[in-house]
Structure to design on (287 residues):
């Protein structure tokens, strides 16, 4: 295992900046969680037929985002001081996925926060939903590029033992399939927003399952990082672990990304009555 990176571009040089970025974002998410917990909204007079916003969903997604960004910042910091190139690249593989998913979960929590106050027109919620799907496309492209470069560069260290199907999956199937699924989910979201049907909101179980998947993703990334530290110049990375780290780094974020998109609010306008009950009580019908 070489200790000096000989690649055209060395992502380890950007690890300190990414660590700072993930740390700052984690701090912002933590501050938002504190505000969300401590500040209770005053009871508002909502139009008839409109349910109050669900703050719990936003808090759950922000917790998942905080954990992912916190672990990403730590892994980027560890990789920044690594002198073994392949070991550092493997650690960056997990850190990059957590950073991308943490940012996506931030937007998911923002969607629920805006949905809490956007009761009638839902225009702000719909704009935020579209922005979240756009971030999802960026996350998919980032993950496919990161993992593809890792397979191409680190795969050379395996002396021709790299299975031919692994680069094919990463370079030709991973990106189109995930982007296609995301596009279908975006189309589904747009249909739900504008087709006039009885309003049904995203279930709490879906949001909670998304948070659990985020926590599981953080645990898997930590496991990969711990195992990666055992490799050095005397004990090079094995083909089995290389394949495991690669497939895990594309599989776990893909599942978390899909669940995150399912856990977004629908953005559908609620049907409101023309008159509020309070108005009817204040202006009784004349006999």
């Amino acid at each position: 295992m070489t200790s000096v990176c000989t690649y055209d571009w060395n992502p380890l040089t950007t690890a300190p900046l990414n660590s700072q970025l993930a740390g700052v974002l984690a701090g912002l998410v933590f501050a938002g969680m504190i505000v969300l917990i401590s500040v209770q909204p005053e009871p508002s007079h909502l139009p008839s037929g409109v349910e109050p916003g669900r703050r719990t969903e936003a808090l759950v997604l922000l917790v998942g985002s905080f954990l992912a960004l916190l672990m990403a910042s730590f892994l980027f910091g560890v990789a920044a001081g690594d002198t073994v190139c392949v070991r550092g690249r493997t650690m960056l593989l997990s850190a990059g996925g957590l950073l991308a998913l943490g940012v996506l979960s931030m937007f998911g929590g923002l969607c629920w926060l805006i949905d809490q106050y956007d009761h009638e027109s839902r225009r702000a919620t719909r704009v935020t939903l579209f922005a979240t799907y756009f971030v999802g496309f960026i996350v998919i492209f980032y993950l496919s590029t990161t993992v593809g470069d890792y397979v191409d560069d680190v795969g050379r260290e395996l002396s021709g033992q790299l299975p031919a199907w692994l680069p094919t999956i990463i370079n030709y199937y991973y990106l189109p399939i995930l982007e296609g699924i995301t596009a279908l989910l975006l189309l589904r979201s747009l249909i739900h927003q504008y087709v006039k049907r009885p309003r049904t909101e995203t279930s709490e179980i879906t949001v909670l399952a998304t948070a659990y998947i985020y926590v599981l993703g953080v645990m898997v990334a930590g496991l990969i990082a711990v195992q990666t530290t055992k490799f050095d110049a005397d004990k090079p990375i094995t083909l089995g672990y290389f394949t495991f780290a690669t497939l895990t780094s594309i599989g776990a974020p893909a599942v978390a990304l899909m669940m995150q998109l399912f856990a977004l609010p629908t953005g559908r306008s609620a049907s409101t009555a023309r008159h509020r009950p309070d108005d009817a009580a204040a202006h009784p019908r004349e006999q």
